[in-house]
């Protein structure tokens, strides 16, 4: 009662133990934790995708290696250009590069001792336990809250009566409601992945230019490298470019697929460098669709729905890749039979 006007009342010792807010960590410590988390997640993403990307990029060499009789040791990095199918203008392998899998792992490990696999399997726990820090309470005036305030909720708040942080499992009705709210993000991401992997594993091998200094295998490697460069750039661009309407990216990626499919059929592009530009653009679209989809979902879902929503959206890339592989295999066989 005797305090100055406008100043908060002083808490007693007993009250202070229960109601006094915890002190904020120093700014320098929070910045250090931010950079540790950034490096940790970057390394985790690299470890998660590196082997898969290498196997996709080596798919043409692997199939050529398996075609060579008696070659059980390595893949020749610059094989002599030979026609895999002399009756086809596409210089096809007998099998499409669409289904990368156990054969690639088998090839990579024929000559390696088992001890070489330990660092690959141990680096992720090291990043997880030594680099990442536990998340603290969010700053009420932080960037995430300002972004969230500018967004519309993914589903209505009355869809669930459970309280945030209660830990109660979602009912089937709640899950169905969340899933329906995700469809305008899931469908575009499925289309993006379908189109880009149809291009990568169904058309890259068939986009063969004979009037260049690059062999067929080298052309395929450049296609894969340029695609991954575009993906890396766009997945790292979230801070400077955020896209809400991801269906635009899906539309552009499907146009990429249609354009390259027509070029495979008619061979009207005069230079491989035009293909290089299209493939970089393809990678930019794919990476942007992926990172913006999950960013938008994270902002537009409530706390109790976010984990389920993010896990559900993860089916998009797998579904798109699987569908593209199923269609790329018969397309490869059909085109390679053309003279």
Description:
The protein has 339 residues and is mostly helical. The protein has a domain of 170 residues: Growth Hormone, Chain: A, CATH 1.20.1250. The protein has twelve helices and no strands. α2 packs antiparallel against α5, α7 packs antiparallel against α10 and α8 runs parallel beside α10. The N terminus is likely disordered.
- Indicate the proportion of strand residues: under 5%
CATH architecture descriptor name of one domain? Up-down Bundle
Q: What's the total count of β strands? A: 0
Instruction: Give the C-alpha Rg.
Output: 26 Å
**Uncertain regions spanning at least 5 consecutive residues:** 1-8, 10-16, 70-77, 79-86, 158-166
What is the arithmetic mean of pLDDT? Answer: 75
- Span between termini: 96 Å
**Based on helices, strands and strand pairing, what is the structural class?**
mainly alpha
Order of helices and strands: HHHHHHHHHHHH
Q: Estimate the global geometry from the Cα principal axes.
A: globular
- Give me the CATH fold name of one domain: Growth Hormone, Chain: A
Q: Summarize the biggest pleated sheet.
A: none
Q: What share of residues is helical? A: 55-70%
* Tally of contiguous helical segments: 12
Query: What's the CATH C level of one domain?
Result: Mainly Alpha
């Amino acid at each position: 009662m005797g305090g100055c006007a406008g100043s908060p009342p002083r808490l007693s010792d007993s009250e202070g133990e229960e109601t006094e807010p915890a002190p904020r960590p120093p700014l320098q410590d929070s910045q250090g934790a931010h950079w540790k988390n950034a490096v940790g997640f970057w390394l985790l993403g690299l470890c998660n995708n590196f082997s898969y990307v290498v196997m996709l990029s080596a798919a043409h060499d692997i199939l050529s290696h398996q075609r060579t009789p008696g070659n059980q040791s390595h893949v020749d990095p610059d094989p002599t250009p030979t026609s895999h199918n002399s009756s086809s203008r596409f210089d096809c392998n007998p099998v499409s590069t669409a289904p990368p899998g156990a054969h690639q792992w088998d090839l990579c490990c024929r000559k390696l001792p088992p001890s070489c696999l330990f660092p690959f399997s141990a680096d992720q726990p090291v990043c997880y336990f030594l680099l990442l820090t536990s998340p603290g309470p969010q700053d009420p005036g932080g960037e995430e809250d300002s972004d969230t305030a500018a967004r519309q909720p993914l589903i209505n708040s009355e869809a669930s009566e459970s309280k945030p942080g209660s830990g109660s499992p979602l009912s089937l009705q709640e899950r169905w409601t969340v899933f329906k709210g995700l469809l305008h993000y899931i469908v575009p991401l499925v289309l993006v992945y379908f189109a880009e992997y149809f291009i990568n594993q169904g058309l890259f091998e068939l986009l063969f230019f004979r009037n260049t200094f690059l062999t067929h295998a080298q052309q395929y490697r450049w296609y894969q490298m340029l695609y991954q460069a575009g993906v890396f750039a766009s997945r790292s661009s979230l801070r400077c470019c955020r896209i809400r309407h991801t269906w635009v990216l899906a539309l552009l990626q499907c146009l990429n697929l249609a354009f390259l499919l027509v070029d495979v059929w008619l061979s009207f592009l005069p230079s491989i460098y035009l293909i290089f530009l299209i493939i970089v653009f393809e990678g930019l679209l794919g990476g942007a669709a992926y990172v913006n989809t999950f960013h938008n979902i994270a902002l537009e879902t409530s706390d109790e729905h976010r984990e389920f929503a993010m896990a559900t959206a993860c089916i998009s890339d797998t579904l798109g890749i699987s569908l593209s592989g199923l269609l790329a295999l018969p397309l490869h066989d059909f085109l390679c039979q053309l003279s």
